[in-house]
Amino acid sequence: MTKPIYSLVIPIYNEEENITEMYRRLSHVMTQLDGETELILIDDGSRDRSLSMIRELHHCDRRVCYLSFARNFGHQIAVTAGLNFVQGQCVIVMDADLQDPPELILKLITKWQQGYQVVYAQRLSRKKESWLKRFTAYIFYRILQRLSKVDIPADTGDFCLMDRQVIDILNAMPERNRYIRGLRAWVGFSQTAVHFERDPRFAGKVKYSFGKSWALAIDGIISFSTVPLKLATYLGMLSAGVALLMMTLVLYWRLVDPVSPLIGFTLITIAMFFLGSVQLICIGILGEYISRIYEEVKGRPIYTLKETGGLVKVSEMSSN
Ligand code: UDP
Ligand code: MG
């Protein structure tokens, strides 16, 4: 097979109900592309029939290659692994559950052909997702934009197209904590959006539990902002201000009404709890950063592979 021009990277975790339909829709799109295509499926330690279905696709269609992790490492790592193996000049990352419509790939490619190096798909709506998910996602992307110096576009997921130049830079980044939509924005180059309506899942349950989404959100903020670290300073200033105000009040009361019991236990208890919680929050934030530094220095591989099909590693980063 000659070197492909297009590489499609799809992370898969327990998606047995979606794989056949995803492949059907993708093959239809692949026939419309003007060059060789490779489809890289990453099995993120699935416990259902996903891996055997992927193997079967690999045997029937030479364009399908796969990686299989020795356990579940998470979506961002699965995408990272895929990027380590892509050979194409133009790489498209998308989910396996058909929430990202494969047909949009053609639009992304048109933008690439116009000269953009990153084309990200931006959601106009999230059909049938719970109001809680929509609301928290809305708030999160706005907070992230406020806190980060990198302009991470709101309402974009990992569905995007990236040029080879961008992929080479991403693969060379030694960072283990990978918030891909942030790293993609950080890289720079000419970037543009293509808008789309996010469909509901074709089948199966969402694999991002509330806990996983929360962890991803915290990762996003901590990897791209140091503002939380400065929070301690501001909170310290605030409580110093409050203390100063209280001292003035106490002094005033002493002078005006020297016999009244000025400060009761309630006030002292409230002040203690307030200061205690401020300090704990600040220590917690420090802990978030330190734990990530710890992860980075340990230098463990970010994933372990148990099986590959039709792939040779092109990037030297990670699992070695
Ligand atoms: N996924 C994965 N590993 C995980 C969780 C999810 O590879 O630990 C894959 C999943 O199979 C899907 C994509 O990541 O292809 C997005 O997951 P999901 O649809 O559950 O999340 P959401 O739509 O909420 O982003
Ligand atoms: Mg999904």
UniProtKB/TrEMBL annotation:
The chain crosses the membrane at residues 231-253, 265-290. Signal peptide: none annotated. The keyword Transferase applies. It is a multi-pass membrane protein. Residues 7-167 form the Glycosyltransferase 2-like domain. CDD domains: DPM1_like_bac (cd04187). One of its GO terms (cellular component) is plasma membrane. It is found in: Cell membrane. One of its GO terms (molecular function) is glycosyltransferase activity. It is an enzyme of class 2 (transferase). Its EC number is 2.4.-.-. Keywords: Cell membrane, Glycosyltransferase, Membrane, Transferase, Transmembrane, Transmembrane helix. It holds the Pfam family Glycos_transf_2. PANTHER family: PROPHAGE BACTOPRENOL GLUCOSYL TRANSFERASE HOMOLOG, UNDECAPRENYL-PHOSPHATE 4-DEOXY-4-FORMAMIDO-L-ARABINOSE TRANSFERASE-RELATED. Belongs to the glycosyltransferase 2 family. GtrB subfamily. This is Glycosyltransferase family 2 protein. It comes from Halotia branconii CENA392.
